[in-house]
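Hi again,

Forgot to attach this to my earlier email, sorry! This is the prediction with 6-O-phosphono-beta-D-fructofuranose bound. I've pasted everything inline since the attachment limit keeps bouncing my files.
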Amino acid sequence: MNDAWRALEAHYHESSGAHLRDLFAVDPGRAARYRIEGAGWLLDYSKHRINQETLSYLLALARSSGLEERRENMFKGEKINSTEGRAALHIALRAPRSSVIQVDGTDVVPSVHRVLERMAELARAIREERWLGFSGRPIRNIVNIGIGGSDLGPVMAYEALRHYSDRRLTFRFVSNVDYTDFAEAVRGLRPDETLFIVASKTFTTLETMTNAHSARDWLAGSAGSDSKAVARHFVALSTNADAVNAFGIPTDQMYEFWDWVGGRYSMDSAIGLSTMIAIGPQCYSEMLGGFHAMDEHFRNAPLDKNMPVIMGLLNVWYADFFGSETVAILPYAQYLKRFPAYLQQLTMESNGKHVTLSGQPVDYPTGPIFWGEPGTNGQHSFYQLIHQGTQLIPCDFIAFGHSLNPDTRGHHTFLIANAIAQAEALAFGRPLQKVIDEGTSAGLAPHRVLEGNRPSSLLLCERLSPAALGSLVALYEHSVFTQAAVWDINPFDQWGVELGKQLAKRVAEEIVSTDKILQHDSSTNAAIEWYRAHHR
Ligand code: F6P
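Structure tokens for the complex follow:
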């Protein structure tokens, strides 16, 4: 805890009692003051429990944590993922061809564009019906098999950009090792019209490899044992060429990426192949343009006019000073229905860390829990708690000026009116006197009071285009980075997921080999025995 932190803490104790009603009342220019535009997005953060002093303390904290230097190190390809000895260079995935970004003395930009070109060739071949299945019929169904970053990005992007997709093609996504996921995904599909994309950075992930083998069996059931015929129905997205070959996918059907791309930062690497097939190479390149525009904004805008920096610092403000444990992501766009799920991995796998970069235990809360649902559905479910519950839950409202499906009954206006109204209700509430003036009985009045002072950001954009999606994702990536810098943690590793994987492997072996003596705790032993007895 440094001086900047202590100064912010003192400021919190002095200022945190202020109500948003008063902050707005004394400052008519508040909305204009707390507003940033960049990369096609407008951020209104005036409904946050801050004033000019708060901002200067937060920015001082960011500077004292070396945010600017850390950011430069990321853009320069330094090995900032120190616990894995790797760079974290997702920004290179969307860098223009003319850029030079070096890792270990080698410019990685040409390789990025080479893979993009190969992806575009495949996307065009499928969309123009030139990629044929084993019976000579064109591919109509694309099934992405992957999990975590190899699934959440592709499925989120497909749903988000569905409006731009080739509607002759069917897209399905298989992630869970529960066979049901696979069985339901291929239900009704013709094997000879189906292409499986096996997406796995490591090509060793249990869920993905199990599903990939089931896919091969499913195909072989129709195509027979001719491995060449089967191979035509598989492509791989990976960093592990040997494992891809061993699986039987020819090298020219592997689309590579690199160890400097983290799984949850990979939706715009080769992992985005399903997205590119869906929306076509041109729209895909517009999406990359949106990512890049936000990268430039993050790198160059002054900290006090920098959207990801301000959003990240606000998360720190609530998590560490107000004790908020969660952040709600509320897109008022049905196409963004998987965006909260996508952000859960991006934010929580990145910043759910308990030690600093040098391995010391942190003595302050790190990554909050991210969750959410599209509006207006959430309003009829959990918003009650956000308005009147005992927890302080900062909310991100995301809304667009235009619908992609224009209607004659004003759906879009109702949709956006709700987003705006919810932010207003959260901030200003309904005080007791107003409730009484409205004629509510004394007994009922307290139940109808909304205390307000509940913070939210409003993120606005013209329309949900590929570029808008790219810049939105990059906005959150860099906000996560900003938080990690302040917390002095590594947002690019995920050691916490390893133990569960190892234990699951051991338990699976023990279940199968019933003669193995169980040496876990009594509860784990009992669960294994229960399953052995029931799964016969
Ligand atoms: O288990 C966590 C994780 O390693 C994620 O970080 C990653 O996105 C996911 O598994 C899938 O990994 P892979 O792409 O190597 O199959």
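Residues 147-150, 200-202, 205, 208, 263-264, 349, 494, 497 surround 6-O-phosphono-beta-D-fructofuranose (CB under 6 Å). The mean pLDDT is 97.

That should be everything now.

G.
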